[in-house]
Each structure stands twice: as C-alpha cells, then as structure tokens.
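Structure in, sequence out. Go:
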C-alpha cells in the first residue's frame, strides 16, 4: 500500500480531542504519523494514564482484530495526524505491506510480555499481602494475667511480662516502661524506673521498688523497702509517689 494510498486514510485531531472512549464500539485502528496520543483508563472514578504513544506507534487494533468494545480511551496529547484503518482495508494493508504486519506482531508481543510482568508483580504483591495477613492472624495475643487501674483516670494498664517496670518515659533515651504513668504524673513525681511487678510461673505477683526511687512506693499505704519484694493480691492499692492504682489478678478472678 503506497504512501499515496495512505493519504486518503489520514485524519487530524487537535490537542485535547478524544479520539475514542473506553467502552465505545469501533472497527478502526490508528497509526500515528505526527504528534502524540495519550491512552488512559478510568479507574475508581479517575482517569489514569496507561501510556503516551508517539510517531510510528499504533493503537485501537483490538477492535479491528476482535470487534470488541474499546478497553481504554485515546486522547490527542498534542495536535496529531493519524492514519485511520478500518477492518475492511486492514487486510488489504497487511497483504500489501508485510513489514507493517511484522511491526504489529512485535508490538503485540511486547504488550503481552509487559502484561505478563504486571501479572507477576500483582501475584507477588498478593502473595506478600497474604503472608502478612496470615502472620498477623497467627500472632499470639499477649497473655494478660493481671492489670492495674488508675484511681484518678480509670485507665487500665495490663501486666503482660514476667517483669513489668513501672515509671514514666525517659525523654532522653526514649525508654518506655511497660506501665507508663507519664500521663498520670504530669508533675513528674514518679521516677523513670520507679518499681516493677514480678510474676512467677505459678502466677504469683510481687511488687519491688527499684534502687534510686525518690518519692516512695506504697502497698496498701505501707511503704516498701527498696529491693524487697512484697506479694500482691487481688484488690491491693499500689501507690507510686502520689499516684494510686488498684491491682487485679485475672487468675484469681476466673
């Protein structure tokens, strides 16, 4: 098919003109002679650009080959000149110019490879997401055997470790105790590492004041000696400086 024959199939589009829309029926394909064409698809209500085609590229061939509705939209990215080929003269064009047929086959092969890469990426991402979901489901929840309740705010502090330190956050090192009373103690009477609750394998709990504590630790209004563990029972009132909390043993509740 000579260039003179091609001339009668030339069409022009100004920048911003939609050449065809997603879902349209059509039996033409286009070859870009000059300018650029944007191919885009509406995804979740937004137009997402799939690619921008330039001189020598072609698009819309699926409607010629399969007679299917347009799978995406095409818009003139800039003033462009296209060759418009319908299904009737497509066969004649292929017969007269084998090179065009080879170019189309190569282009379709490239698009297929790109689609396969996209599928592999999606499958990989899906597998990773599934693994993360399963890991999240299988993650064991902390074993709460006891908890403290603030008398002032009603806030609950679960005891989940065999040694749970009580105090306030250290703004210098960033260290945070298991029972962080920073919000309960805005005037900072409590030491950063004030005391700890120790749990044995038999779910027996004891309260121990840490060395260096300044404003005292009390169990039912009785001051503790530093380093000396005192057994805890359900309903005990623990005082750290001037902050009161009630101790509850879930094992004794059940």
């Amino acid at each position: 098919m000579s260039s003179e024959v091609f001339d009668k199939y030339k069409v022009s589009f100004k920048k911003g003109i939609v050449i065809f829309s997603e879902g349209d029926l059509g039996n033409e394909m286009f070859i870009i002679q000059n300018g650029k064409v944007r191919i885009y698809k509406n995804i979740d209500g937004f137009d997402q650009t799939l690619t921008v085609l330039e001189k020598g590229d072609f698009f819309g061939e699926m409607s010629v080959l399969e007679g299917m509705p347009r799978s995406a939209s095409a818009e003139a990215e800039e003033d462009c000149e296209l060759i418009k080929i319908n299904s009737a003269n497509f066969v004649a064009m292929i017969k007269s110019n084998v090179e065009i047929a080879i170019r189309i086959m190569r282009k379709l092969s490239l698009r297929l490879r790109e689609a396969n890469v996209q599928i592999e990426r999606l499958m990989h991402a899906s597998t990773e997401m599934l693994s993360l979901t399963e890991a999240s489901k299988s993650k064991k929840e902390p074993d709460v055997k006891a908890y403290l309740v603030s008398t002032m705010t009603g806030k609950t502090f679960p005891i989940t470790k065999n040694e749970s330190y009580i105090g306030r956050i250290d703004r210098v090192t960033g260290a945070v105790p298991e029972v962080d009373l920073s919000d309960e103690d805005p005037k900072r009477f409590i030491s950063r590492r004030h005391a700890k609750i120790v749990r044995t394998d038999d779910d027996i709990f004891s309260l121990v004041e840490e060395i260096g504590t300044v404003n005292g630790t009390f169990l039912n209004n009785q001051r503790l000696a530093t380093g000396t563990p005192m057994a805890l029972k359900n309903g005990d009132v623990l005082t750290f400086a001037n902050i009161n909390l009630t101790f509850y043993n879930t094992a004794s509740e059940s």
